[in-house]
What we know:
Blueprint: H1 5-16, E1 21-22, H2 25-32, E2 45-48, H3 52-65, E3 69-72, E4 89-92, E5 99-103, E6 108-111, H4 117-126, E7 131-132, H5 144-149, H6 157-160, E8 167-173, E9 179-182, H7 183-187, E10 214-221, E11 223-224, H8 239-251, H9 263-290, H10 299-316, E12 318-320, H11 323-336, E13 352-354
Parallel strand pairs: 2-4, 3-4
Antiparallel strand pairs: 1-2, 5-6, 6-10, 7-11, 8-9, 8-10, 12-13
Helix pairs in contact: 1-3
Bound molecules: flavin-adenine dinucleotide.
Amino acid sequence: MTVTRDDALRELEALVGAARVRRDAPSLAAAGGDQTENEPAWPDAVVDVATRDELVAVVKLAARAAVPLVPRVAGTNLGGLTIPGRGGWVLDLTRMNRIVELHVEDMVAVLEPGVSFAQLKQALDEQQTGLTIGFPLAPPEVSVVANCLLDGLGNLSLRHSAMGEWISGLEVIRADGTLLRTGAMALGVPVPFARAPLPDLSGLFVSLQGATGLVSRAAIQLWPAPAFRERSFVFVFDRAALCPALGALARLDVLDDLGALSWPTGKLLLGVIVFGLLAYALWRLFQGLLDPENEGTDAKGIAKTARDEIRMARDKKRVVRTPEDEQMEKLYREQVLNQKPAAEPQAAKPAVVQIEV
Ligand SMILES: Cc1cc2nc3c(=O)[nH]c(=O)nc-3n(C[C@H](O)[C@H](O)[C@H](O)COP(=O)(O)OP(=O)(O)OC[C@H]3O[C@@H](n4cnc5c(N)ncnc54)[C@H](O)[C@@H]3O)c2cc1C
């Protein structure tokens, strides 16, 4: 039975909870555009999907009401790919962020689409796996699975190819809500590390931007983290010589990554960094001016800094000054600062000064 889009929205709210069907203007505007020059378009709703079962149910409901779906994680693709040109529901998959399996020995991870590069790196580092995933130049919160599905390029791509090649299996929800498993995930093996021996259908979902199905899990190849890493910057002033030089360097088979920036792009990046630093400095300045409790150069700020230092000293309970320290300070005052020696104190100073506040 088909349902209208309005009915479907009500069903959707019952399905995932009204709070996870966002229809406020800021949410719709944020999901409707991206960083490209493509025209933004507003979706009917942004749905925060948390589990595979929810995703299946949402896809089935959308199929009944003929609502277009746009899967999205960080939305940083540079092709206008998550702009909902025909309206419908943008599926925000950031909550589907489980590292479902991590097979260190076999160097493969099964990930939900919301797992970011930062999250996976943290997990690999914390567990001291000695493995890495490689990283695109993109912000760290972008999705590993989305990058693989886009056949993206990262800092290991020169050595290990584009990231679409690293997929060893997929679990996909098709437009009617049925599940399909490809590659190693179709075999039901305990460790999904190889696409063979079945014909591998994973390619049907790579570089198709969700048009052929929504990926709920992906098995992705990991790599040994390099024991040694060094970065070099080279300035080339002959643009015509650059491409052959890059090709020759790439074929040396010693580099993990190789890239070139034109001077206008370099200037742009430099501008972004300088602007960022300036903005930060201004922010700190205004923070100091607006908030009298903050450190600053006015009397209140100085008093607060002094108070903090005294508190810190009190927390340490005592400040140790040896007789050698006293002697050094005396010499410094007399010989460097040309100060007259202070009158000898009546009573001998203690070597340990107790600070009471
Ligand atoms: C400054 C900058 C630098 C970048 N550098 C690089 C780079 O070096 N290399 C590179 O490859 N890319 C780069 N990118 C592009 C982009 O950031 C990456 O490709 C990133 O991995 C995309 O992830 P995302 O979470 O933003 O995906 P999104 O933009 O949210 O989605 C990407 C695509 O995948 C689809 N999709 C999302 N989830 C699913 C799913 N579960 N099932 C099916 N389809 C899905 C979306 O509909 C969309 O078509 C860069 C972007 C920026 C802004």
